[in-house]
Amino acid sequence: MAGAGTSPREKRSTAARLKAALSSSSSGGGGGGSGGPGAEESEASAELQALLERVLSPAPGGVGGGVGVVGEAVSEALAWCRCLLAGGEPWDGFVQAVRAYDPATLCGLVWTANFVAYRCRTCGISPCMSLCAECFHQGEHAGHDYNMFRSQAGGACDCGDGNVMREAGFCKRHRIKSSSEVPSVPKDLLIMSELVLPQFIFCLIQYLREGYTEPVLDLPSEKDIQKILKVLQMLEPHISFLEDLTKMGGAMRSVLTQVLTNQQFYKDLSSGGGENACAKKSRLGAGENACAKKSHEKYLIALKGSGLTFPEEKLASGGQEQGAAASTSAVQGCAGATPASGQGDSSDEEDQDGTQGVGKRKRVKLSTTTKDQSIMDVLKHKCFLEELLFWTIKYEFPQKMVTFLLNMLPDQDYKIAFTKTFVQHYAFIMKTLKKSHESDTMSNRIVHISVQLFSNEELARQVTEECQLLDIMVTVLLYMMESCLIKSELQDEENSLHVVVNCGEALLKNNTYWPLVSDFINILSHQSVAKKFLEDHRLLVMWMNFVSFFQGMNLNKRELNEHVEFESQTYYAAFAAELEACAQPMWGLLSHCKVRETQEYTRNVVKYCLEALQDWFDAINFVDEPTPNQVTFHLPLHRYYAMFLSKAVKCQEVDLDSLLPDQEMLMKLMVHPLQIQASLSEIHSNMWVRNGLQIKGQAMTYVQSHFCNSMIDPDIYLLQVCASRLDPDYFISSVFERFKVVDLLTMASQHQNTVLDAEHERSMLEGALTFLVILLSLRLHLGMTDDEILRAEMVAQLCMNDRTHSSLLDLIPENPNPKSGIVPGSLSFESMLSAVADFKAPVFEPGGSMQQGMYTPKAEVWDKEFDPVMVILRTVYRRDVQSAMDRYTAFLKQSGKFHGNPWPPYKKRTHLHPSYKGLLRLLHCKTLHIVLFTLLYKILMDHQNLSEHVLCMVLYLIELGLENSSEQESEEEDSVGGQERCHDSWFPGNNLVSNMRHFINYVRVRVPETAPEVKREPPASTSADGFSASQNSGTAQVFSLVAERRKKFQEIINRNTSEASQAVRPKTSMKWSAPGTTPQLTNAILEVKESILSLLVKLHHKLSGKQNSYYPPWLDDMEPLIPQENPKYFHGDGMTAVERILLKAALQSRLNKHIIEEICRKVTPPVPPKKISPAEKKTLDKEERRQKARERQQKLLAEFASRQKSFMETAMDVESPEADIAMEITTSEQHVPEAMYDCVICGQSGPSTEERPAGLVVLLQASSVLGQCRNSTEPKKLPTSEKEQIYARDTCAAVYEERLATLQKFFKDSSCLQSVSIGWEGGVYVQTCGHTLHIDCHKSYMESLRNDQVLQGFSVDKGEFTCPLCRQFANSVLPCYPGTNMERSLWPCHSNKNMQDLIKEVEELQEQLGTFPSETNLSKEMESVMKDIKSTTQKKYTDYSKTPGSPDNDFLFMYSVARTNLELELVHRGGNLCQGGASTAGKRSCLHQLFHVLAMHMRLYSIDSAYNPWKKLTQLMEDKNLQMCSEDQPEVPVLYRDVLSLLLIQILTMPQPLHKEHFACIIKVLFTLLYIQALVALSVKGSTDDRTTWMNSGASKKNMSNAKTSHEALLSHVISEFSKGKVYDQEETEDPAMDSNSAWCPHSIETYLQQFCLPFLRITSLLQHHLFGGELPSCQEEEEFAVLANCLGLLPSSFQASHQFSSASCLDWPVPAFDIISQWCSELVSFAEQHPKEVKILSLQESKWDLPRLLQLPENYNTIFQYYHRKSCSVCTKVPKDPAVCLVCGTFVCLKGLCCKQQSYCECVLHSQNCGAGTGIFLLINASVIIIIRGHRFCLWGSVYLDAHGEEDRDLRRGKPLYICKERYKVLEQQWISHTFDHINKRWGPHYNGL
Question: Which of 258, 296, 1272, 1663 has the smallest number of Cβ neighbours within 10 A?
Fold first, then answer.
């Protein structure tokens, strides 16, 4: 039969034959028709079977075989498969045929990481919804909330899937088609597929079995990994083939599904040793059979090695599976072969069990009773799909396999089967993931699959019901975490039974668990699934068990002696784990507990949560005192409890008390959260500084916006709940004890603190009071609505700083519905934002730093809503609180509300939910009142360690108490005589209002014996009895907070469990027995005689610094007592606060009002004047001295500033000495002062001399900006489609280059090189900051920079430095030419010498040879700067001569440098000189000095007098013909020479300094040449008719007296001269559009001539301005020509403005006009003999160039992105990873692409050299930012595309639509044209040619 290597034709015929046989039978005799077809069919199918087995069986030698051989076999096999599937038809036809039956309702496009996809929140049902770009752009999403994103793990397009997104968002292709439209599939089309595919997939599985070897140890070695990669590489074609099949559409997918899920196929093919199979295959050799058997055994070994068993082995232990596919014996047979160590999961952990050393951080193994063993260890495969997935996991999810499995998902049956299979393998996935060597990649691939399966609610519900999905997930998570448990060291280290995860393990450090957690969160987002979870008590217990593994992890112990050696960074892992594994599932569950009906769920969670907490307290042996100096930030159980409580009260109307435990449990619950609050304060007080920076990191993370609502908010809420239910005195004293400031709260002026250093006392006291204020005034969970919360959060963030929209979104804590980036009601976010904030549009600062669009709080927000408490709660950095206060102060000043230094305002609170009313009892308990009284007294008496902040918080608490006082006040007032019936030693009752007025006369204090209080004799009446409550007349006792608290706790404990407390009591009381061995404490009695009210009044006096400054406002005017808000007291300082409090106290009770009046009448002396002790005197002196020193410093600084300013001014005047002197037009020479220069390094001032020259700090840079001028006024657009292209043909650089090339073709090289200018591309631009320095000073400065190690982004070796004064970037020094400013003095322009004499003088001056200057320092420097200038640009931009290295090159280069700088200055002025005045760069021009340098070098080249163009311009030659023919290549005709080049050559080759009259003479002569060139160009432009007309009209004027200054006469002469030769010959064949319309009226001719000559006049005027000083006049555009001509002295003196101005009137002929014109024209006529075509091209010179512009960019960034991010590079034809586009010329390049590297230069760097001579401006397509390359450095410039909120989106992270910001683009263009990138952008770095 057909051999293996059959030809395609034979294959086709075999296939056709088999197909015919097989399909005829199926259509043939039905039922039991004739036996014929049946037999034929079985024969055919057997033949097919055999053929497939032969073709597909794995190559002999299996995977080990040679790659070549295997490769051939594989391609042969695939060729057969294609043939067979298509039944002999061509493959493409078959594909088309199958596609016709595709009911494509789903897109299902699968993508891998880094793909650009879209997400539309408006259309999405599931937050994971995503769309491919094509479906997105074809759907209608305008105005929706969408964004573009780069896929991280891969994904699939959901278009068409109604479970995940709303139908309105479907694209045109996937709007639901009804199934009726799609015809049903003809049976015989796919019949072959059904027969071939099972065999093919089995073959794939055999390859996978063959290729796998179980790694010997747990971790696969490098060799194993290589081997696996090899297998996968070999299988690539197979999988690609399957992928192609899936792309054929629905019909083929359903066949594949059938094959993959059919259990019979699997049984027949895969089980290997089945008897029936053997019988069937009797025709095959025994070898084949053995092979199949062997493969099956390998499969069993792999199962076994994975720690999985076949159910049979479980039969003994009650496995239910009877129908076994393989005989048990086979299993036992290979069990022996399995290496023991292969059972990874069990063996390595067991041996650790025995050796649990105490205190060592060993792993802890739990007993495994909790788990259902069958979930973890049993796998049984019943179909291909299941085994395929098994191998996919085994091989760690190869990308190709994943894509194939996902490509099948649009098939509904497959989707269900696959999801079930995936769930069945879930435990196995987890095990493989734990061992994986690349867990990151694997995680991404797992999520890539699971997100497609679990986002669909219907499917998730089905799997939950049928496959116990929740059980499996929770069990797998538990199992996973159990592998990294350690013993908890919290509380009782030795006896703790609690275990926690070890955050140092890879599992947590690398977030290996996230795929599983993310799946869990995903399924909990479906209501039906979450409900099942919340109803299932067993699951809840397991889950709480899981959460308790994180309770108390990452314990911090405070280092008391040395700094820790090694700062662990485990806290990242801990916070991430709590957020992802505990908090996010919690938020998921909470989102389903929103209504009353769900009460039951909440009760369940709370119940099991409390049980878990109780177990935890027992496990860590917790009684009542936390162990000191340790803290953990992780209490997820507390937080679960808190959040469910909050939800129950807020949404489900549950009675709070029904969910609360007993008092003892509440006391325990509050301990750890309170410990965290105290530790935060300790950390900020630097008490944990020896633990390193990481502890600060933890404190910040705890309150940071992504964590705060899962961490600090629930903690504070839980404390609020505890406070509202516990005894307030107990709670308050606990707080002060936790914060370690109990000892500080004494009336005595000195005290001993046993637990706190003095330097920490103040900040800890501030911390305790601030915490109380937050606790009492925060209402986040106590009754605020969601909108109020959002508003409060937003206001707090905006008050700290102005914010961009995205940072605000990021900073506002969302209720993290885990995966959605959705703030609850994101619509309300926008409306809320516009309600509280104003938008500040993005602006530029002059320095060039770009601002983003910012939101800033509205004035009324500052006025009414600024809430310091919220700000303190939400600040990560303490400086933000200060920043908010500064901004608040600024607002008050600006609005004139308050001018001093305000205190934080007091903000009224929203109403408290009735369940939490108990919280307010804290404000009305004696303990707090005693603390407040004590602190007020201490502040008044100036005790140490108290701050304004303390006073502020004390007043805040008093005010809170007054605002929330209860109504019992009136009854107390009825039983008058409150003071008399005082029995308690401090206060009579609990109400703050009445306690405020209670006077305290004596207080007994415990003080060190050394304290001043001891000396006093106690009054006789007082008993000195220590702690007993004495009954005497109002001596308040020493109040021991701790003792009180102990008593309370004791009572409760006794009430609950008398015996338990007995056992533990002694141990704890010990701690408090010895308070320290410092000086003995003794009792003393203090006379106080104050009440809170009297203390407040005195404080007012103290704060104001005046006696009796407080005067009750109601005495004058009863109004303040009407209870209403008085805006006068809103904002202000401490005095305002005191006044506000006194007013409130008076409002609340008549008695208080009288007492305040009483106190004020007594006009108390403020505070008894203290005797100043010597120590205090010292500190006072110190203060005074400091103050004086400060003033002195201010004075010095001011003086220095003014000096610097005047210095800057003088320095600025230096560069252009011309400015001052030009004013005094003197003829006498002796006055001319020498130019003086200030050296910015040594500070000396003096002239520049030959020996010690001074120089200007300059930056030399090559520039191609001029070359980018185009002659169209419309800027070119950046191409955004294939049709648009940009050609460089019409740029200025291209035009000039072509001109030079044409000239070089026909004329003598050296002459060509003097007839043009170069430097349009790669010209050298010289700019200066205007500061000067001595060149020797500069050298030593460079030396010091070279030795300085810290270099900022510039390379000293390349001569780069920054100006020592203004820090501007520079790379050379331009020597200043010494000498007076002689040339300025020769001003009179119209000198009396006549033209002829001047011409003669000029000629003689040019004849003088330039002598080599003597070797002075100056000349050396000039040479070296010339070298710098040359080396600034690349060789190709200086070498234009045909003979390399010819001196003509240098000559051309030097005068072109002058040209480049003049042209650029003209561009900077906007292309014309209408503005006049000094140049825009102001005094910063260095052209004058540059000219001297260039001139010195140009004079070294003498021009042979025969060739000197000056002669040709000013003399008539005798025998012209002779001269033309004498040489093989003629000189360039005068009319083709560039006049400006001639000008520069003339000037630079004359001895310097130049005389003004010679300059004027040269200009006059050159103007005549220019004018004739204009006429020549005009004559060539015109048509034949035009010329005839012109010739005739001009001929008549030739004889008139003014003929030589009339353009008609001259034009006529030119035309008649040219008509003698062939100049006009090639005429009419050329394009007729050459202005053939008769538009040439005299006026338009005049305009043309003026436009032609203007560029020359502009440049010449600039040159004159730089050489000789003098202002440039300003003018209107239309009179620019006349004004400049006048300025240059071209206008005849007889000229009056009244005349009709004509450009020809400026002509001043040195020789008879018509003769010289004839002479010039004759050169062209003779040239035209040979080259008639070129004559015209060269005559038409383009003179009008538009200003250089960058490309015009489209409005919307998406236009650019969609075109370029998939565009392939023209060089390497790949799609670049980082595409970029040049904004100057539009070239598309690969950034950093190694593919396009040439000689170690990457493409962008290379392009920047070719396109911009070293300056490149690139837009990075994938990042939307612009990057500038300048030479060897680069910088990120920023983005010119901003979103709707005026923000950049670098790297397109947010993916919001971006729009061009025209102002920014203008700024970029400006910096490019003015060459100021180096100065304005600060962050440069070297690119090492790698961009």
Answer: 1272
Q: Tokens in use for 1245?
A: 């001032």
For the record, the structure tokens of 1017 come out as: 């004799």
DSSP 620: T
Q: What is the pLDDT of residues 417-432, one digit of tens each?
A: 999 999 999 999 998 8
Burial (Cβ within 10 Å: 0-12, 13-18, ≥19) of residue 1068 = middle
Question: pLDDT value at position 775?
Answer: 95
Check residue 1038 and give its pLDDT.
53
Retrieve residue 1824's tokens. Answer: 């939307």
Q: Quick check: 265 and 277 in contact, CB under 8 A?
A: no
Closest alpha carbon to 943 in 995, 1011, 1040: 1011
Q: What is the pLDDT of residues 1071-1115, one digit of tens each?
A: 333 333 345 667 778 887 888 888 898 888 888 887 777 777 777
Identify the helix (H) or strand (E) that includes residue 1329: strand 1323-1334
Helix, coil or strand: residue 1885 = strand
- The DSSP line for 1818-1844 is EEETTT--EEEEETTEEEEEE-SEE-T
Give the gyration radius of the chain's Cα atoms: 47
* Cα dihedral value 881, 887, 888, 892, nearest 10: 160
Q: Which of 219-233, 1142-1156, 1214-1228 has the highest mean pLDDT?
A: 1142-1156
- Given this model, what pLDDT does residue 1118 score? 62
In whole angstroms, what is the distance from residue 1419 CA to residue 1843 CA?
57
SS (H, E, C) 476-503: HHHHHHHCCEEECCCCCCCCCCCEEECC
pLDDT at 530 over 70: yes
Contact 127, 143 (CB under 8 A): no
CB 587 within 8 A of CB 525: no
Least-confidence region, from 373-387, 768-782, 1017-1031, 1246-1260: 1017-1031
pLDDT tens, position by position, 178-230: 555 667 777 777 778 888 888 888 888 888 888 887 766 656 677 777 888 88
1368-1371, long-range: CB < 8 A, 24+ apart:
1368/1257, 1368/1259, 1368/1329, 1368/1878, 1368/1879, 1369/1259, 1369/1878, 1369/1879, 1370/1257, 1370/1258, 1370/1259, 1370/1328, 1370/1329, 1371/1258, 1371/1259, 1371/1260, 1371/1428
Rounded Cα distance, 921 and 991, in Å: 9
Please tell me what DSSP assigns to residue 1270. Answer: B
Residue type, 1623: V
Confidence band of 548 (pLDDT split at 50, 70, 90): very high
Length of the chain: 1891
CA angle 1175, 1180, 1185 (to 5 degrees): 125
Residues 242 and 408: beta-carbon distance below 8 Å: no
**Mapped to the 3 state alphabet, what secondary structure does 159-210 carry?**
CCCCCCECHHHCCHHHCCCCHHHCCCCCHHHCHHHHHHHHHHHHHHHHHHHH
Q: Strand 1323-1334 relative to strand 1254-1263: parallel, antiparallel, unpaired?
A: antiparallel
Mean pLDDT of 1418-1447: 86
Angstrom distance (rounded) from CA 39 to CA 32: 12
Look at residue 1064 and tell me whether its pLDDT is greater than 60. no
Could you check whether the bond before residue 1553 is cis, i.e. omega within 30 degrees of 0?
A: yes
Start-end of H helices in 1779-1881: 1803-1812, 1862-1873, 1877-1880
pTM of the full structure: 0.82
- Give the Å distances, CA to CA, from 859 to 142, 894, 1845: 34, 10, 21
Residue with tokens 């935060």, as numbered in its chain: 680
